[in-house]
Design goal:
A seven-stranded mixed beta sheet has the order 3-2-1-4-5-7-6, sandwiched between helices. The chain is an alpha/beta fold. The radius of gyration is 16 Å and the shape is globular. Helices cover 35% and strands 24% of the residues. Helix 5 packs parallel to helix 6. The structure holds S-adenosylmethionine. S-adenosylmethionine binds next to helix 3 and strand 2.
Length: 205
């Protein structure tokens, strides 16, 4: 078992492959399984620092794709060519702000790996994570095209079941997934929505 804070195989692999974080293997596993990243897409990556999801997504969307990262802090790696970065708090970000800053009106995919600074108090950390994931979903409902996809991390706790129900109502397919690269001791799961229903598109969060 991996001790928290101790370099594991995923960490070493990320270093050797030039990725900014081991979290890239969570995204790559889910993308291999569900195939949501495609060439030419417009992708919004919430909580993008240090930047491994941006690095992976840039390869998948290619030169014709558009990639926007959002975080409280700038990426720790050079932004992939053509990608844009917005330094902002996801809890305060609006769809109008994203459109104004990027010139992109509509996205194919919204990713969120946003994680609160943990306190070790489980209920408090879960509540903070839920609030961030709900904000990510609200942004996705305002920015995704019909048929678009959403993937967000959340720490399991009270309120997550209702969030899953919201995703299932808004998308043709909604489900939870725990990637192999997610440490078994971690309470995180990823929620996936595929195929946004037109009627679920919501105005400004
Ligand atoms: C686990 S990291 C993301 C890792 C990233 N997916 C990668 O692969 O490099 C979580 C990120 O969420 C960001 N974050 C936390 N609260 C946030 C907020 N309110 N608004 C924007 N970003 C936030 C943190 O700054 C942190 O960089």
């Amino acid at each position: 078992m991996t001790r928290p804070g101790h370099p594991d195989a995923y960490y070493r692999r990320a270093k050797s492959q030039g990725y900014a974080a081991r979290s890239v293997y969570k995204l790559s596993e889910m993308d291999r399984r569900y195939g949501f990243l495609k060439s030419g897409q417009a992708v919004l990556d919430l909580g993008c620092h240090p930047g491994s999801w941006l690095q992976y997504a840039a390869k998948k969307v290619g030169k014709k794709g558009r990639l926007v990262g959002v975080d409280l802090q700038p990426p720790g790696v050079e932004m992939p060519p053509g990608a844009q970065f917005i330094q902002a708090d996801v809890l305060e970000l609006t769809a109008k702000g994203v459109r104004g800053d990027t010139g992109i009106e509509i996205f194919d995919l919204v990713l969120s790996d946003v994680a609160p600074r943990t306190t070790g108090i489980k209920d408090r950390d879960a509540a903070a994570s839920l609030e961030l994931s709900e904000a990510a979903l609200n942004l996705a409902l305002a920015l995704l095209k019909p048929g678009g996809s959403f993937l967000a991390k959340v720490y399991f706790g009270p309120g997550v079941d209702e969030l899953i129900r919201r995703i299932k109502r808004a998308f043709k397919l909604g489900k939870g997934h725990k990637p192999e690269a997610s440490r078994s001791a971690s309470k995180e799961i990823y929620l996936l929505g595929r195929g946004l229903k037109k009627a679920a598109q919501a105005p400004e969060p």
